[in-house]
Every structure is written in C-alpha cells, then in structure tokens.
C-alpha cells in the first residue's frame, strides 16, 4: 500500500515541445491543437494516474536536461540511436506510434537520392537538436525546423535533407513548395524514454498506452492531424 502511494505521488517532468517543435506531432503555436504528442502525452500520464510537470526548455537543451535529471522523459524512436541503444540511464515503453523518416529533395532530384547510401560524405539538411543514428557518415547542415528544411531545398542551400514523412508533407503543402520523398532513412516507432530511476512506473505507463490504443484515442489523434486536406 505504501509503495503504491509513493508511485502515485511521483511527479514526472517533461518538456512541452518534446525535442523540438515537430509538426504535426508537436505544434507550439496553438494551445488547443498542440499536435499528436502534444495532446497525447498528458492523456497517457493521466490514464496512468501519474502527475506531470510541464517545462518549456529550448529544443537544444532537452537531451542535456534529460541526462541531468532536470526532465524525466521524452518520446523518441529507437531507430534514431546507433543499435537502438538509448543509454544505461533510460528505459523505454511499449510502442506508441509508428513513424518514418525519408531523404527529402526536389522532384527532379528524387531518383538521385533513391539509395540511402548516397548520403555518405554529403552535406545533408538536418534539424538542430534532433538525433540521427548515422550522422557520423554525412555532414550535418542544421536548420531550426522541418519548415526551414523545405525552404532550404528550394533555395538550393542543400540538395537533400532528412525529415519525417508527415512533417515534410505538412510543410511542403503549407508553404506551397513541393518536395519529393526519396530513400527511407529510418522506420520505426515512437516510445517513451524514461529515466531509469522511475522504471517502477513503466507498467502503469504501458497499461495506459495499451488502453488508449484499444479505445481508439491514439488513432483518433493521428487522424485529427493527418487525415485532412493537407494530405489529399
């Protein structure tokens, strides 16, 4: 009983922006439509009966804050890490969402970048603060967001970039700057990355994720932000 009460009283700290403003997963400009994860994270923790404390660190400080214990969790993909290893400090939840990253480029260059091996030794557009499992084989050219990656392609600042498929399509449509999805860079799932000192909470969290999958909440949120005119 005392152990349960202690778990229930635990407050987990997280960053409201995740690792960055990652549309359509996080949307910082609209509090009522804060993105798939922006809406889902509080629901998962509420369903798990775990209190949360919201913080608003700049994107580049999120990983550092997690390592120092200033934050307790975020949502990442094991595919972003070499060999899927998030480090000894963390445990991971059951999968929450499926995601995919592509090499994005202009239509005329799509065939050139159809093989992922082409990125070796090349300057590739990336988002500042994001993790890439193989960024030792290419030269990162960091921009502030996926939105800026799209603009950079059209200004010929880079010939190729790495982006989640839905964020890239969202901003290409929003900006009226067409892009093409080329080679798949990574394909995987999003999980909660939780500091290991809180691992006793993981069964509650996993049960909450399963409940929100089974009752359609997670799919409804995905549909809300992706099944719109932006993707027709």
Automatic annotation (TrEMBL):
> What Pfam families does this protein's entry cite?
SBP_bac_3
Query: Superkingdom of this entry's organism?
Result: Bacteria
**Residues covered by the Solute-binding protein family 3/N-terminal domain:** 19-227
Q: Does the keyword Signal apply?
A: yes
Which keywords describe this protein according to UniProt?
A: Signal
Against InterPro entries, the record matches this protein to: Solute-binding_3/MltF_N (IPR001638)
Q: Report whether Transcription shows up as a keyword of the record.
A: no
The similarity annotation says:
Belongs to the bacterial solute-binding protein 3 family.
Name assigned to this protein:
Amino acid ABC transporter periplasmic protein
Instruction: Report the source organism.
Output: Shewanella japonica
Taxon lineage: Bacteria, Pseudomonadati, Pseudomonadota, Gammaproteobacteria, Alteromonadales
């Amino acid at each position: 009983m005392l152990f349960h009460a202690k778990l229930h009283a635990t407050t987990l700290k997280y960053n409201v922006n995740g690792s960055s403003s990652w549309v359509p997963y996080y949307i910082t400009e609209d509090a009522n439509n804060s993105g798939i994860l922006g809406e889902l994270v509080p629901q998962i923790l509420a369903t798990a009966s775990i209190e949360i404390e919201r913080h608003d660190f700049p994107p580049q400080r999120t990983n550092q804050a997690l390592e120092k214990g200033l934050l307790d969790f975020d949502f990442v993909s094991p595919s972003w890490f070499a060999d899927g290893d998030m480090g000894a400090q963390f445990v991971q939840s059951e999968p929450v969402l499926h995601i995919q990253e592509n090499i994005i480029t202009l239509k005329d260059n799509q065939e050139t970048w159809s093989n992922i091996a082409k990125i070796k030794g090349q300057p590739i557009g990336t988002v500042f603060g994001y993790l890439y499992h193989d960024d030792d084989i290419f030269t990162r050219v960091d921009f502030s967001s996926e939105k800026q990656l799209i603009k950079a392609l059209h200004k010929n600042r880079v010939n190729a970039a790495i982006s989640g498929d839905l964020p890239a399509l969202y901003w290409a449509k929003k900006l009226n700057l067409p892009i093409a999805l080329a080679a798949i860079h990574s394909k995987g799932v999003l999980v909660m990355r939780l500091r290991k000192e809180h691992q006793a909470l993981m069964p509650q969290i996993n049960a909450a994720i399963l409940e929100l999958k089974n009752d359609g909440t997670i799919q409804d949120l995905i549909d809300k932000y992706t099944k719109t005119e932006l993707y027709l």
